Each structure stands twice: as structure tokens, then as C-alpha cells.
Amino acid sequence: MVAEPLERSVLSYLPHGFIVLDEDTNAASAVRQMHAKKAEIIIVKQQKEDGKFVGILTDTDILDKVVVRGDDSDQVLLRDIMSSPVITISAKANARQALDLMRLNSIKRIPVTDNISILGIVTRDGLAHAIQTSVLERTFRPYRSVIREHYKPIWGNLGFILQFAGVLIIAPGLLASALGEVVAATGIFLGIIFMFLTGFALNVYGEKTPLNLRQASVLMVSSFVLLSFFGSIPYMYVNPFYKGIDPIAKFFITSKPDRCTHINVKRFGIQQEIKVTVKKRAQLFF
Predict the structure, then answer these.
(1) φ and ψ at 17, to 5 degrees?
(2) What is the CATH number that goes with domain 5-116?
(3) pLDDT digits (tens, 9 = 90+) for 211-242
């Protein structure tokens, strides 16, 4: 069973890098070391050999307390600008306890310790982002399970059918090439390429597992639709109809305009010209 986001150990939320420096280190040297190690947080300890951790400092603190004030960073020591004391949390604590401790002390980050050394830093923003991501994953997990159980087997088997059908029509394509039917061969090979690409994509996302009756029915219908579509590519490319007809237009009803004819008739000894309109029926092109 997956643990709730707030009940997970704080060790699951330790992405932030940090460095440990002596309290007598100046701000300029601290910044250089932070950039060298790509760290965002400084843990300040006493200069003694077994010095305790006495403060914490971020790059934002250096910016606000040194750069903005215009002080000389070579003359400003970490002990003068650090936040003290250091509030830590045990590695056995969970995310809920870390958030409660940060809210109680009005801080945004807290070091995680095993009572010997500092293992990492958890931040309020980092916890909030991780918990939000975890909640979203938990929300969509049932949908992913439905897709994996109900649709991926269909995709996998459908991809196999398309690729197998592509293999079968290679022979007609080769025959058309041998007979010099360049246009027909081009259309056939275009259909083969599209079949292989679609089949490959479906195999990547699908799973070749046994199907139940409903899945088999969906597979039959979808394979019929896709094979009809890909099978029409050579037909549409060759365009067996005479020139001047758009291949798309042959699937729609078209009508020819009315034609007018003038007929000369003689009635009662008088020569007359009668205008006759010839109606044309709508025609279907299939």
C-alpha cells in the first residue's frame, strides 16, 4: 500500500544541496564555494574540531544582508549574517511533522539529521510541490490502471496486426515495381510505411496480452477501420479516375448545371424559337 504523502519519511524529500562552512568564513568565499558545488544552502558550524552547527544561511540571505546593503563581502563573516539557532528534525520524522515544525518556528527550510551529521535539507516549497505531485499521481492512478488493463492489450495486438498487414502487401509493391508501375508501387509503399510506423507506435505503448471478448470486439472493429484507411492510401494516390476530378470530390454528391437549348419549331405557319431547359440529375461518383 502506498503511504500518504504527509506520512512519508522526510528522507523522501531531500533534493536540495548544501555545504557546511565555518562561522569565520567570509561571504565572498562562501558564495564561491556555493557556486562551485551548486548548493543553495549553507550550514554554519563552529570552528572547533567537533564544532556544533550554529546557523543556517541561503544565497538570498547573502544577497539581502550583504549585496543590497553595499557591504564588502570579503569583510562580512557568516556568523554575522546567519540565522541562528539551527532547528533540525530527525530522519525518522515524516513530512507532516516537518511542516508542523516549520510552521511553528516560522521558517521555510529545516535540516534533517541522524544526531551525528546533517543528511539533507527539506524546504516548505519542496514539500508542497512533492505532495502536490503525489496527490495528482494518486488521483490519476485509477485511470492509468484502467488504460493498462483495458486498452493497452488492444493497442499491442492492433500494432501487430498493422505490421503484419504491411508485410503482406510488400509483395504487391515489389510486383508493381517489377512491372514498371511506378505510381502504383509508390502508393503501395507509402501505405506500408504508414502501417509500420503506426504499428510500431502502438507496440511501444501497448502490451501483447490475452484479450477478453469485449477487447477482441474492439480490436476487430478498430483493425477494420485502420486497415481500410491505410489500404485506401495507394488507391487515393494512384487516382484511377480521369484527370480533373479531385480524389476527395468523388465521395460527395455533385450536380451538373442546367443546360438550355433553343429549338426552332413551326406552328400555324409561323417560325418560332423555343427555349428548352434540360434538367440534369445529381450524380454520385464512387
Answers:
(1) -80, 155
(2) 3.10.580.10
(3) 788 888 888 888 888 888 887 776 665 555 54
Measured CA to CA, the distance from residue 166 to residue 184 in angstroms comes to 16
3-state SS string over 105-144? Answer: HCCCEEEEECCCCEEEEEEHHHHHHHHHHHHHHHHHHHHH
Beta strand spans in the chain (E): 18-22, 41-45, 53-58, 89-90, 109-113, 118-123, 253-254, 259-267, 270-278, 283-284
Q: CATH 3.10.580.10 in the chain: give the residue spans.
A: 5-116
Residue 15, preceding peptide bond in cis (omega within 30° of 0): no
Q: What global pTM score does this model have? A: 0.47
Within a 10 A sphere around the Cβ of 81, how many other Cβ atoms?
A: 19
Return d(Cα 83, Cα 44) in angstroms, integer.
9
Q: Please identify which residue in the block is written with the cell numbers 551548486.
A: 38
